[in-house]
Amino acid sequence: QVQLVESGGGLVQAGGSLRLSCAASGSTFSTMPFSTYAASWYRQAPGKERELVATITRAGGTTNYADAVKGRFTISRDNAKKTAYLQMDSLKAEDTAVYYCNLRNYRNDYWGQGTQITVSS
User: Is the pLDDT of residue 106 over 90?
Assistant: First the structure.
């Protein structure tokens, strides 16, 4: 089985920073390594649909961001540690949401349980 555990969420004032981590574990990574998965962060605010925040390719060579977070958020990964990160700077009240980690390749699609980010204005 696969487990994605997000950490680093919490309450922060507007303008502040947080760093989310998504640690992957499970026997599946012995046959299909973490490095075979694209990693993404999504978020879902109350009453809204889940939206893609950022994506990083398998080797980390390419990243993409939602327009709302460009220039403020940075996605990265450490394949040796089987961990993906989301550095969030200059946080705004509208960034308040539950943030989810996602790993996806041609065969599998895994989600974390989510971590709450609350930005107070």
Answer: yes
